[in-house]
Amino acid sequence: MSYSTPRVKLPFTREPSQIAGTLNYSPPAQYSITTRYDIITKKSMTSKILIVEDDHNIVELLTYNLAQEGVDVHAALDGADALQQAAAGVPDLIILDLMLPETDGLEVCRLLKRNPQTAAIPVVMLTAKGEEIDRIVGLELGIDDYIAKSFSLREVVLRVCRVAPRCVSNQ
User: Fold this and answer.
1) Mean per-residue pLDDT over the chain, rounded
2) Do the Cβ atoms of 100 and 52 come closer than 8 Å?
């Protein structure tokens, strides 16, 4: 196994080699170690996830945490954009909010499941509507999981990676 030195681009004004105390470490040849970096850089193992959420803070939070798991994250802020993105570059999974501007999440889910191109995409509903009737309606529409806000980030990442076919955490 060959090892590659990961390069991290940080907001430094100097090159990392100019920073005092820079540590370059290569594991001894007798160890066979697959690092998180090695796994994440293998594009064939990366899931593409579309987050459909109108709250920018939640999108940013989920994007950061899912990217840490090696997920290629895309976002849509409304239902129309979600439908367009899903049809253009079919994602491996969609995280969908129920309460969206213009086209709500239930209608987006209904339209996704009716379209043969997008019908097989797993959908995880992430919404403030946590009543039993909301969960039942979502499950009847074909969602794969239902997460009520407020949520644990770790739980969301684990649930998404359980449903996503090529999430790095599944490897």
Assistant:
1) 75
2) yes
Decide: residue 86, CB within 10 A, 0-12 exposed, 13-18 middle, 19+ buried.
Answer: buried
Give SS3 for 105.
helix
Which pLDDT tens digit goes with each residue over 104-125?
Answer: 888 999 999 999 999 889 999 9
H helices within 12-171, ranges in order? 36-40, 56-68, 79-88, 105-114, 132-141, 153-163
Question: Among residues 53, 59, 29, 34, which one has the least CA distance to residue 45?
Answer: 34
Token pair belonging to 130 = 């946590």
* CB-CB contact of 89 with 118 (8 Å): no
- The more confident residue out of 164 and 99 is 99
By residue count, the chain amounts to: 171
For residue 46, is pLDDT > 80? no
Name the residue ranges covered by the structural domains of the chain. Answer: 42-170
**pLDDT > 90 fraction of the chain, expressed in percent and rounded:** 23
CATH of 42-170, one of 3.40.1190.20, 3.40.50.720, 3.40.50.2300, 3.10.20.740: 3.40.50.2300
Residue type for position 19: I
- For the stretch 81-104, pLDDT in tens is 999 999 898 899 999 998 888 888
